[in-house]
Amino acid sequence: MSHPTTSITVLNLQIPTPSGNSPIFPVMLSDVDGVTLVDTGMIGQFAELQSALEQEGVQLSDVKRVIITHQDIDHIGNVGALLDAIPDLEIWAHADEIPYLTGEKPLIKFTPERRALLPAPVLALADQLLLQLPEVNISRTLADGDILPLQGGTQVIHTPGHTPGHICLYFGEQQFLLAADELRVVDDELVGPAPQATPDMPEALRSLKKLTDLKLNKVLCYHGGEYMNDPAQRIATLAESAE
Ligand SMILES: [Zn+2]
């Protein structure tokens, strides 16, 4: 089945770090009712996000909703700026992540130690974002197994561990897994989540088992990009290390 009006576009934004730029990969889903962004980039990257969309021929006014895979600041960084620009923007997220996205609970990993690593201008934007979080209205609460009306049917897979409400998305027609931070590509190899950024690593590894029955051509990791070297087999191997 083909849908000429639907497409999945991987965006590429660069986060400056002391050791050089580090790419991250938000995703743009085009469907008949508009554009869905999956994650929004790092705090302070709104201009980059906007120009990445424009390069794909998309204006902010075309963006109908954002799916947040999880609460980390490099994923939610531009939610506030998007809400300012798009008043009726929908935000979809897993139930277990919502209290963090609405400011009811503090972001798990945005600790004083992490804050200290950010340059002052980014920190100022971070504080602005935290103040905006109580304005965030979640339009749709996602649950494991939901089939979203996007790309001919997009499956929500709840993969806790990296954060409580972390999700992956599976596009069945394309056999494409959007892994967010549940998997990474490091030195051309698919690996599990980053231990230093994953508070419950045993749970994150157990979550990998939920990915082992998927038919896969391609996995996209927010950190590391695309992986196409028999990803299903590699995920099965990684899942064996789960308790
Ligand atoms: Zn993360």
From TrEMBL:
Q: Please give the coiled-coil regions recorded for this protein.
A: none
| Reactions that this protein is recorded to catalyse | 3',5'-cyclic UMP + H2O = UMP + H(+); 3',5'-cyclic CMP + H2O = CMP + H(+)
Query: InterPro entries in the record, alphabetically?
Result: Metallo-B-lactamas, NDM-1-like, RibonucZ/Hydroxyglut_hydro
What Pfam families does UniProt report for this protein, alphabetically? Lactamase_B
Looking at the record, the residues that make up the Metallo-beta-lactamase domain are 23-223
Cited function = Counteracts the endogenous Pycsar antiviral defense system. Phosphodiesterase that enables metal-dependent hydrolysis of host cyclic nucleotide Pycsar defense signals such as cCMP and cUMP.
Write down what this protein is called. Glyoxylase-like metal-dependent hydrolase (Beta-lactamase superfamily II)
The organism encoding this protein is Paenibacillus xylanexedens
